[in-house]
Amino acid sequence: MISYPKTDYVLLSMPERNVLLITINRQKQYNALNSEANWELHNVINWAEEEESIWVIIITGAGDKAFCTGMDLVSAHNSNSSLGGSTLPPTGFGGLSNRRTSRKPVIAAVNGYALGGGMEIVCACNIVVATEKSQFGLPEVKRGVVIAAGGLARLARSVSYQVASELVLTGRFMDAQEAKFHGLVNEVVSNETDIVQSALIWAKQITSNSPDAVFLTKQGLLLALERASMTDATTEWIESPEATAWREGDNLSEGLMAFAQKRKPQWKNPTNYKSNM
Predict the structure, then answer these.
(1) Which residues are known catalytic residues?
(2) Angle at alpha carbon of residue 7, lines to 114 and 121, rounded to 5°
(3) What is the CB-side half-sphere exposure of residue 221 using CA atoms within 13 A?
(4) Which residues pair with 114 in a beta bridge?
(5) With a threshold of 0.90, does the pTM exceed it?
(6) Cβ(237)–Cβ(223) under 8 Å?
């Protein structure tokens, strides 16, 4: 039986085997995050990264209005805190937007507004599923602030320079279909669809694969974004301790043996590898 960390701002559950569901639970604030909630998510995701039984993470927002509308500006104003990086954990907004290393794939289940820091979380997720009514945007310039938690660089690497410029310099919103057109959303579903169930379909496709191979591949994707040289990124990736754990783990031999025997592989929890997050 898994033991969850104590939380005040998010709800934690395991809707399927090996899948952690994180629900931002601040409906009255349209799931905007204050400083404490950002640090809580940072700690929760750090815990999930080291928990062997968790292979995939889904993040969503409570209610049907918003996924996450970014920083709780009212809380930030009342506390006289800066809106720069100093109020955020080193892993960025929601513990995700500036996370340099990560093993576990993250799926965003968006049902409503994903704005500011919420959009930065979306840009850091591996898979994004959204309802038709969902709205995406980085309206920071409209409030006199900037996109300082990692999302600006991620967006600029995900879409064309001109599209990124249009979105961040005007601060306009885009709907789910436009976000899908630009490659920022993987699937758009009807507003009546249970968005978490749609995300679980994607999660189960991932958990049907070797967790060792999935974790190592996720690390390789991040290194490809972080390093200037593709060949250096590949060398660093394949020579990493995580790659050694994959080569020495049971799941590599299990996958090859299952293929040879024409049967479905029986994956095990991978070796718990301590990464620097």
Answers:
(1) 120, 140
(2) 25
(3) 19
(4) 68, 136
(5) yes
(6) yes
